[in-house]
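Quick one:
INPUT:
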């Protein structure tokens, strides 16, 4: 059972993290908003420069400037584990963060990866693993175990595009999912992920208040925009 102290959810084995070289001020606000009712093991901003003002409780950690989206993707896959000291990381962005802390479920930590559900693909290659199975859970705003973060570098998985895209969540949750699973890692099913986060407005998420969101589409439009 989750522990609460003075009404605040205690997640000592989770690091709240964001990694960015753009919209740094907005990202800091997203981190601050995410931690206002939760005590994490650590809260880190991974960026190329220290912001002029960093709220108390957020630690700055340096990374070389992420000049392109693929610099971001590469570092998310192979390097972010170097910045995380706890068993899990909750990754947020300026456009996706914790909005309903009361919707936390301890079962979110039963998995090595939990993010918002993917929509069903409208083609014959998107959101699929190497065997053609449709992958229903991914998304960059997610909880990931430390062992999952370490795995791509340890296993020397090559940085290769998936149908022309280097998206880090697609790399982990679709293209190379079989490698992570063969190493014993578990991905949350849609039935649990729909309570964790929302990005695509798929039928399965209707009427649910999620713990996190990503992007302001549909019912996510009510959440703060910094």
């Amino acid at each position: 059972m989750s522990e609460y102290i003075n009404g605040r959810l205690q997640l000592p084995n989770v690091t709240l993290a964001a990694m960015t070289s753009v919209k740094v001020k907005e990202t800091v606000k997203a981190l601050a908003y995410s931690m206002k009712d939760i005590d994490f093991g650590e809260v880190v901003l991974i960026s190329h420069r220290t912001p002029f003002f960093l709220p108390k409780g957020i630690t700055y950690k340096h990374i070389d400037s992420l000049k392109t989206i693929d610099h971001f993707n590469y570092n998310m896959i192979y390097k972010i584990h170097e910045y995380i000291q706890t068993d899990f990381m909750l990754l947020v962005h300026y456009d996706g963060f914790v909005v309903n802390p009361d919707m936390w479920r301890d079962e979110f930590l039963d998995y090595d990866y939990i993010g918002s559900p993917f929509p069903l693909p409208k083609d014959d290659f998107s959101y699929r693993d190497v065997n053609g199975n449709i992958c229903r859970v991914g998304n960059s705003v997610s909880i990931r175990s430390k062992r999952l973060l370490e795995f791509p570098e340890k296993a020397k998985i090559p940085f290769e595009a998936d149908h022309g895209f280097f998206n880090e969540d697609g790399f982990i949750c679709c293209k190379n999912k079989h490698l992570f699973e063969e190493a014993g890692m578990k991905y949350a099913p849609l039935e649990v992920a729909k309570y964790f986060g929302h990005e695509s407005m798929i039928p399965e998420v209707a009427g649910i208040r999620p713990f996190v969101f990503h992007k302001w589409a549909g019912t996510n439009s009510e959440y703060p925009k910094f």
